[in-house]
Design a protein that fits this description.
3-stranded mixed sheet, globular, alpha/beta, Amdntrnsf_FN0238, 343 residues, L-arginine/glycine Amidinotransferase, Chain A, Arginine deiminase-related protein
Length: 343
């Protein structure tokens, strides 16, 4: 399994989707649905786009876990990466969310699936910080370099530096916080709209970091492992070119392949030289999701990566042998009591 690129993902298939009015104030990427378009039509369009993304990822050998969501009070539930992240070694993190109508997107059935199908040792839950007005919206607020153990974070209402440092202490990352703004001086609401870190390539709108010294520090930290840095423009960021994610798929004959998942809109904004730089190490998988992008997020926001070891199911013979071994070590009397006090 790749340290940086997960081979499995979680997607939420929501039957109702509308741009969330509770997040519009600080999300400059958000837009209204076309005039005259009904909520039913918007939801139907988004549902088709979710299914298309799931199919495209399966086609390149990525394991996809899809959870249906029929709760019509969760307009942004298609973006699970804001409340959940998983980490090598068996740890899961659950995050505090800025918008109150997003906080019930957290789902116990998703966590139970992870525990049953993957090796989960602990769940670290930061959501109790919400009443204090302190937020860190997962891998939306942070872009994680799992190889060099760096957490890149643009400061915002949704990325509190104190929680970032606490996360980094708990999960052994180096925090690298910075300010990032657009040409109008509006802070970037989520780091993952301006940055994507892959194994051998990184996409980053470095010019949106106004502090020249900090910008250079970020550039040097990204390149320390020899990554190619594809520098994105603000215009490309507005087309969601930064909201991509590297995944690890499989070819038909079982060989590992790196893929860079992004929207078709994002790919269209890239120059040929940028596409070539990405394709030196990744196959680009682009899916058209114009309806979902109305909510201010794109493909990266839709994907919660699974960085956990898969739990291999025991074959029936292995299971029978394991039960027999347990019974042999812990004999019981006919009435069901352990012999000699074994437990």
């Amino acid at each position: 399994m790749s340290a940086q690129a997960p081979s499995a993902v979680i997607l939420i298939r929501a039957t109702r989707f509308v741009p969330n009015p509770a997040t519009a104030a600080d999300n400059a990427f958000q837009a209204d649905a076309p005039a005259g378009q009904t909520e039913e039509a918007t939801s139907a369009g988004a549902l088709a786009e979710m299914d298309a993304l799931a199919e495209a990822l399966r086609a390149v050998g990525v394991r996809v876990h899809v959870f249906d969501d029929d709760d019509h009070t969760r307009p942004d539930s298609v973006f699970p990466n804001n409340w959940l992240s998983t980490h090598a070694g068996g740890t899961v993190a659950v995050y505090p969310m800025y918008a109150s109508n997003r906080r019930h997107e957290r789902r116990s059935d998703v966590l139970e699936m992870l525990k049953s199908e993957y090796r989960v040792q602990a769940i670290v839950d930061y959501s109790g910080l919400e009443p204090d007005g302190i937020f860190l919206e997962g891998t939306g607020a942070m872009v994680l370099d799992h190889v060099s153990r760096v957490a890149y974070a643009a400061r915002s209402y949704r990325a509190d530096v104190a929680v970032l440092e606490r996360f980094c202490t708990d999960f052994n990352y180096e925090p690298m916080a910075f300010d990032a703004v657009d040409s109008d001086g509006i802070p970037v609401y989520h780091t993952n709209v301006i940055a994507c870190v892959g194994t051998h390539v990184a996409l980053f709108a470095l010019d949106m970091i106004p502090d020249e010294h900090r910008r250079q520090q970020v550039r040097e930290r990204l390149a320390v492992t020899g990554r190619t840095i594809v520098e994105l423009t603000e215009e490309q960021i507005r087309e969601f070119a930064g909201n991509a994610v590297e995944l690890c798929g499989r070819t038909a004959d079982g060989r590992r392949r790196y893929v860079m998942a992004m929207s078709a809109r994002a790919k269209r904004s890239l120059r040929p030289d940028q596409v070539a730089a990405i394709e030196e190490s990744c196959e680009i998988v682009a899916v058209d999701i114009p309806t979902i992008e109305l909510a201010g997020g794109s493909v990266r926001c839709m994907i919660a990566g699974v960085h956990l070891d898969h739990r291999r199911p025991l074959a029936e013979a292995e299971l029978s042998a394991a039960v027999a071994a347990i019974n042999e070590d812990n004999p019981v009397t006919p009435d069901g009591r352990f012999v000699d006090g074994n437990a």
